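Hi U.,

Before I forget, here's the chain from the pilot set. I'm dumping it here mostly so it's searchable later in email.
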Amino acid sequence: MTLQPLQLCPAQQRALEGLKRGLGIGHVLALWSETGLGKTTVLREIQRVTGGGFLNMADFMDAMRGQHPIALEETFERLVLDALAIHDVVIVDDLHLLTNVSSCGDFYLRSRLLDAPLTTLCTYAEETGKRLIFGTDDIPGVVRKRCYPWGVREFEVSDYQFICGAWLGAQLSARLNFEKIYRFAPKLNGHQLKSACCWLRQERDLTTERFIDYLRAQHMTSNVDLGEVQAVDLPDLKGIDDIIQSLEANIILPLENDELAKELNIKPKRGVLLAGPPGTGKTTVGRALAHRLRSKFFLIDGTFISGTSQFYARIHYVFEAAKQNAPAIIFIDDSDVIFEDNEDMGLYRYLLTMLDGLESESAGRVCVMMTAMDVSNLPPALVRSGRIELWLETRYPDAAARTAILEGLVAQLPPVMGTVDVTALVAATDGMTGADLKRLLEDGKLLYAYEKAAGRALSSPTEYFLAAVKTVVDNKQRYAEAEEIARQKKAAPPSWPEFFGGFTKMSGPGENGN
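Structure:
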């Protein structure tokens, strides 16, 4: 039976041409790619062109039936040698599924033994003039040293257009702006594009925006459950208009307006520091950004417990997910707490690499935004000029800001509480944060409810809120005192002379030269 030529996207076609050239030069070749880029499709086309044998992990599992459970290497070697005895060209697909098992260290009793049959097979192909082609997502070292490697590179706009055209049809795909789709999600693989097309191809009025909305919902995944995050919009935040304007211009615009970003070649700031006293709205800004940016927002906060075995794994996952969804923002809340004890040097070095843009083009399109109460707890090299490109500072709200905040809070009060003298509250709350103002409104409502439940004569609502002001002020004073005591108790590490002096004092007679 004559096999029909497979339709390949441009990235796959380039890999195919590379393998064809390699077949005329060498005896051992390798095709590598990330999952979903069409490695198997390219190898199947090579099989059609050469008439060679094709082995995958299903063939290996069939060969393993009846064999000893740990005879993986011997079974694999015999399977490939038998194929080479019949065919001049043998293709082994998904080799990484086997190498992953053999490289499990102490968890696999014959660790690295697979190198032996791989070496034998490469030598056999070279000595007999056969052609051996491996398909994998990571070429083993013993093969890499002897092969001609080619890769299926990450997809470009033309690949998106080709794959979507195949699954949507020419009429529907012609309605889509693939440059815009690619700018929104440049890391999609063939499986993801296919699933999107299969889901959407019944929609006769399909648009680019609808396609992107599907990707946002299905493939572009933030690590934040917006249902668990208090809903807040940036325009609703009072007293920080300058910060909001800066965020809109330096972060949100490059992330949301992809056409303008492409036209002017602009990117979000790679390093942003939002510093300020507790309660001045830093975390609230993060909540607003989460709802605004949705799938482009990734959070690292107090749920990432430093010093645990999963800490760095979770950090790495967030950074990798953000790079896959670039352009994106990683929001590190209370970063000064993470670095306070100077213990998390791994995260510190990782952040330096990200901020310096050394890893890849995608890393350079990820904005790292940190909040801090005490900038002095951050490593100096992390906040030096060039790494932090945008410094923002939250402050205690002035009278105008407190008026705006209180008016918004008072408007949410139950009508039964009547009229509140906002001017009196503004005058009594100098030095309070937005969080303090919200707290005193809640405390005032509790005082009002207590007196009403007790059947007492009710005062004006303003009186209850003014009484709550004193409670909030007293609590802030106690907090400040407790914080100062904790700071004083935190022992500073001894100097080197003091450290070695302790050993001198502990030495026995005659041991210190006396």
